[in-house]
Give the backbone structure.
Amino acid sequence: MRVTHASLHQVRLPLVHRFRTSSHAKDHLDHILVRLTDESGAVGWGEIASASDPFYSPETVDTCWLVASRYLLPAVVGARWDDPAEVAGLWAKVRGHQFAKAGVDIAAWTLWSLSGGVSLATALGGTRPSVVAGVSLGIEPTVDALLAEVAKHVDAGYPRVKLKIAPGWDVEPVRAVRSSFPELMLHVDANGAYGETPDELVALRGLDEFGLTMIEQPFGPRNLLAHAALQRDLSTPVCLDESIETLDDLRTAVVLGALKVLNIKVSRLGGLGPAVAAHDLAAEHDIPVWCGGMHEFGVGRAANIALSSLPGFTLPSDVSASDKYYQRDVVYPPITASAGIVDVPTAPGLGHTVDEAFVQASEVQTVELKA
Ligand code: OSB
Ligand code: MG
């Protein structure tokens, strides 16, 4: 295949509910949609789902725009390739910038699967006809407000709830949710907010009594040793998110015993190719995986759903329905969940159509490159 032109579209959508993590709060998101066109006129879409500020990862919307427009798209436009796994080789000299790479990689996969007449899930090696979705709930102003949010999503049928925690917002809200929802599949995510001070370790150990499915990323991304030490102390599995940006990171974490569960994020790993490779490596080590989200618009979330159809994704993924996030999504039909189950599209490519008029109406900036 040969991409003859490519464009980036920075699109702003308001969130239906303010989302607060240990590091920041947000009411709207700017993601960058990537549009690749090949010689036959077929179009593949991808999504760069970076946050605006460098608080989850060092990348921002602005760094992604710079790297994608200056390095990634120029490497791809005009180049010949037969398989999307080769596309990463076109920008092999670019270090890091996983979110920017992931968006272009997703677009190459969707273009390739569309042209080949297969669904993205099939192209990736997916086997499940549907995937189980969980919801990720932010830090709320009060415990009562959190309980109301949990109830709303449990009533909507989601079988798993993840709660954001931070020092000072951990044992108390988790105890309250657990006592109201004794059977709920529950887990927590600290986004690296904890240090190894005695008080903070006491709080993390205090979470061990609530039957959580996992404690996600309690310590900073590079602190694998602290995760390994905590895992030795806890019966709750430790899950890594921010720590794992490459397969090498995963290999190191496995050797250290720093995780029992892996959150696979397409964005953080730099694309669908590396996400599948992380899935395969985790399976070799009997590490269950699930697909984490970055509040993706419908393009990135459809890619996450396709990925979640691979056999190792045995835990619910953060692939909630569009209406959990946005009043209007950039794709039609929007993504829907029924009793927490999301069907995996079988149509060629992404299986959802991008609403180009809505993209244009919601666009902050755009740029186009031609061969
Ligand atoms: O750690 O998983 C995270 C959102 C922004 C930054 C980090 C994270 C999240 C989420 C969102 O939890 C999950 C979703 O997309 O539903
Ligand atoms: Mg996380």
Remarks:
- The radius of gyration is 20 Å.
- Residues 98 and 270 are 4 Å apart (CA to CA).
